[in-house]
Predict the structure.
Amino acid sequence: MFLTKEYSDISSAMLTGYSVFTTFTVENINNKIYVKAFELHIKRLKDNSEVLFGIIPTRTEIVAQITNFLSQKLYTKQLLRIAIYPKSFSISRPSEISEVQIVVTGREYNSNKTPISLELHEMIRPLAHLKTSALFPSLQTRAISQKNGFDDALFFYENNITEGPAWNILF
């Protein structure tokens, strides 16, 4: 398997965890789209992109990609992940980013109304103020919790609950 230049650029940044993202649920009820805290998600993307890349995508650019994805009408209720990554990326020159791209992915979302079991782990993410795709430590901890019979992990640091592997306690 090989990747074309276009996908090679994506994979270079994404595989190193050098991208920012946000995730939210979208519900289509009678052809009306509902999203909780949409503007907070847009702000997170713009703010995190500025910190990591020095580039702020416009709200219009982000919304256009989301709208394009949603026009496929894949599911009535879905979980969207919007990622921003450098268009051209070199692991040896991460300071040389001149343009970013926005990728939207989604999957069907079935809300689980039943409580889930959580295993506590003492952990703090590096650069915890940024939501990056560098999730290896978090996902490894989730895997450990699941192998121990729990549904997921819950992180704490200095006696404070902080977050889950890829989700917030409060937004």
